[in-house]
Design a protein that fits this description.
This protein is mainly beta and about 110 residues long. About 0% of the residues lie in helices and about 50% in strands. A hairpin with a 6-residue loop joins strand 4 and strand 5. The relative contact order is 0.32.
Length: about 110
């Protein structure tokens, strides 16, 4: 069973870059045909898929977020990361990493000065 754990700062100032990391255990991020996603849920709203990185390093983004979203990976550490630039209070949300039905516990990120 794959397990995922998000980590990163809980508070980010507006206009700064949010950086989160998902550490994967119980499986490799290079396993064929696995896709590793970032998903967020703003307060009072539904889940929003932000993007994903595939087993081969290919990346895919939500078109509405693509201009300020970047997903990368570190294969030696079996981690993948999210960077969201120029954040605003509207980026306040619980951020989750996900693959094939396995979810991290989520991490609350608040954008506030």
């Amino acid at each position: 069973q794959v397990q995922l754990q998000e980590s990163g700062p809980g508070l980010v100032k507006p206009s700064q870059t949010l950086s989160l990391t998902c550490t994967v255990s119980g499986g490799s991020i290079t396993t064929s045909y696995y896709f590793w996603s970032w998903i967020r849920q703003p307060p009072g709203k539904g889940l929003e898929w932000m993007g994903a990185i595939a087993y081969d390093g290919s990346t895919y983004y939500n078109p509405s977020l693509k201009s300020h979203t970047s997903i990368s990976r570190g294969t030696s550490k079996n981690q993948f990361s999210l960077q969201l630039s120029s954040v605003t209070p509207e980026d306040t949300a619980v951020y989750y990493c996900n693959t094939r039905g396995s979810w991290g516990q989520g991490t609350q990120v608040t954008v506030s000065s």
